[in-house]
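Running this now, will post back.
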Amino acid sequence: MKQSRVLILDYGSQFTQLIARRLRELQVYSYVLPGETELSRIEEFKPDAIILSGGPSSVYDEHAPQLPKGLMEFQASHQLPLLGVCYGMQLVVQHFGGTISQAHHREYGRMGLKVKGESKLLGDLLNASVSNSFDVWMSHGDETKQVPPGFMVSALSASGATAAIENTDKNIYGLQFHPEVTHSQNGTEILKTFLFQIAKLNPDWTVGNLEENLIAKIREQVPEGRHVICALSGGVDSTVAACLVHRAIGDRLHCFFVDHGLLRYQERERVMKLFTEELHLKVECIDASVRFLSKLAGVSDPEVKRKIIGGEFIAVFEEAAKIIESRLGQLPDYLVQGTLYPDVIESSPAPSGDGSSPTKKHSTTIKSHHNVGGLPKNLRFKLIEPFRDLFKDEVRALGLKLGVPKNFVERHPFPGPGLAIRVLGDVKPEYLETLKLADEIFISEIREAGLYNKIWQAMAIFLPVRTVGVQGDGRTHDHVITLRAVTSVDGMTADWYHFDHQFLAKVSARICNEVRGVGRVVYDISSKPPATIEWE
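Update: finished.
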């Protein structure tokens, strides 16, 4: 039986990934392509339903993204269910002859919504609310002034603006709000109605199918007899990637763990023990700390740091490849990386070699990831990135299926550039040692308090400032450590973790007393957005 497939056309919204995320949570395979993708590529994908994402543009902007030429004719000929979200709804309105104009009252954030009359998409919610109203997440400056012929208004916002439309004859629906955002009440129920009642899809996206498909794809990508090297960082993503590729091609995989001098406290010893004693992977350790730190000396710009680290990683693996060549008589052609979907989204890269990965033509780069935006253009390896279209929790579930120990799969994310982006400014060896000790205290106290698995990611950050303090009877002028801990589902959005004050006081006291050169500890209470999880 054919697997259900939903195509999401991306018009630049930072929430587009959340649409894909929510659909996969509901066990429906979703895939993102740029909003102006050629119709032939859309036909090749063979979608069972289409969703148009939001975006920052106005449909009347000179260079505003438009619907792919022929899309609506394709939709009509196949009677594909289509849902437009925010900007996507406005594109639908414009296409069918409705009117969009600048809103008198822009709507951003949580807003009230009132369901109006009969609605195939929202009708089930009428029985769930006595008042037929609930809160949703809005983010738009334009609004529908006149709906197209044949469409009905199925919901209004608290300000009276058109918030939902539908044309059941055409099988087209539109929402001015974002059901994919957790702040939208009933958002998941709305998506369920679209997927299972309107589109009549099957919830058939499972980890079991995922493992089989990825292994088949790897075997297809790597010809028999060719060899692959894997960049193991000690994190969950690269480790699960190595286990998956090993399952696919066996001993033709050669793993290298690079100690770039930017690892956490005793990370090298802990990780190598795990690889050899628990995962039974053949891993060689390369100590490249001196070369990495010398390249980073005097560099303070975070983007430059990432590109240096990305380039140096490739140089190290090219040297490792020559070691393999001397043993086997052939040079490995492929490099495995644990790149995740959020890495791709935030880096806004160009398409991958096979043209399958999404691009973000109408959005902006948040930051480069060392294994995405930091790679050199003349890379001699062909990349194997099995998780490029997956979210973190999907990789974790796959890791458990592959036999990776649970306590390892549940490790917090750790960035490829390591502590280089947690030492703000110049990366000096003494700063790294200070940060390692402070971070170890923070993480150990989190574990001791039984909070580790309640937190998505926790870290200490070294600030390049000094602050006046008093220790004993003397004045000090020491460094500042920031603590950060967040809760999240996929890393695309996050909220700061609300520690008990006594816990923070204990951690602060330990760091100031046990880590020489630290005189002040602060806690970051910024959410994502507006901040990112990492500081650089």
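DSSP finds 15 helices and 18 strands in the chain. More later if anyone needs it.
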